[in-house]
Amino acid sequence: MASRVVRGGHALTEYLNAAKAAEPLYGDIQKHVLEAALRPSGRRQDVLHPSEMVKPDWCHLAAFHRLRLEVEPAEKRRTTFTRENIFQEGHETHTKWQRWLTEMGRLAGDWHCAVCDGYFWHDTTPAHCHECGAPSRCLTYAEVPLNAHPLRIGGTADGYSPQDAALIEIKTLGLGSLRYERPEYLERYTVPTDVGPVPDLTRLWRDFRRPLPSAVRQTQLYMYLASHFEDLPVDRTIFLYDFKSTQETKSFVVTYDESFSGPLIEAAAAIVDCVATDIAPRCNINSGSGCPSCLEFEEQK
Ligand SMILES: [Zn+2]
Ligand SMILES: [Zn+2]
Known about the structure:
The chain is an alpha+beta fold.
C-alpha cells in the first residue's frame, strides 16, 4: 500500500513541515526568539528614528503621538521567526565587517567596555579602555551615534572611516530581505520553471548596481546629521553589501547631497513644534481619515 508520504509533491512537503514543527527543540528555539523579540527593546522612543523617517508611509501624526507617549511601534508585535532571523543575520554581518575594519585600524566611533560598562569615542582601534584602562579584548565597537537634539532625531550609522571621510553602511541582501523591502525587484527576476516561478539569483545579483532607495534616503539623512550636528567631516557613504545566497559581496558609494534631507528635516522641526505646543499635526499620509499608523493611537484613546 502506497503511503501518503512517499508520493512526494505537496503531501511530502506538508509532512516534512509538520515533522519540523513537531520537533520540540526547534519549536522551543522559535518561541525563545519570538519571546525575546516581544519584550521591550530598550530602543529609545523619545526620538525620531531615521529608519522610520525615510519610509514612504512615515506619518507625522503617529510620530507626534509616539514622542509624547514614548511607546514602541505596534509592528513589533506582528513579527515572525523568519523576520527575526533576517534581523539577526543582519547583525552578524555587521559584526563581521566591523571586525575586519577594526583589525585594519580604519574604524572610528564609540567603543564599549565590558569591564566598566563605559562608552568612549576613538578615531581608530583603541589599545585600551579610556575610562578604566581595560585591555582592547574587553572592548566592542558601539557604532556611530548621530543625534540632532533640537530636532529630536536619534540614529546610529554602522561605521565611520575618517581616512575616507565616509560613513559606512553594511547591508545584507537576501531573498527574505528583498521580499520585505523590495518585492517588485524580486518579482522582476522571477522566472517560470518546470517547478513553478523561481528567482534568477545570478541575474538579480549581477544587475544589483545601487543600494535600495530606502537605504540611500536613510544614509543621506545620516550624512546630514553627521555634518550639521556631530561635527564629523563626511562627503560620502560607502555601502558594503553581502549577498546571502552566494556569499558574494559588492560595494557602492553614495555622495552627500544635502537636498535629499531638506523635507525630512523640515518635517522633524514641525513635529517638534507640535509636541512643544501640544497641537497635533494632520496625518500626512491620508489627511481625510488617517492612516494605519496614526489610527492605532486613536484606537488607544
Ligand atoms: Zn573600561
Ligand atoms: Zn497617519
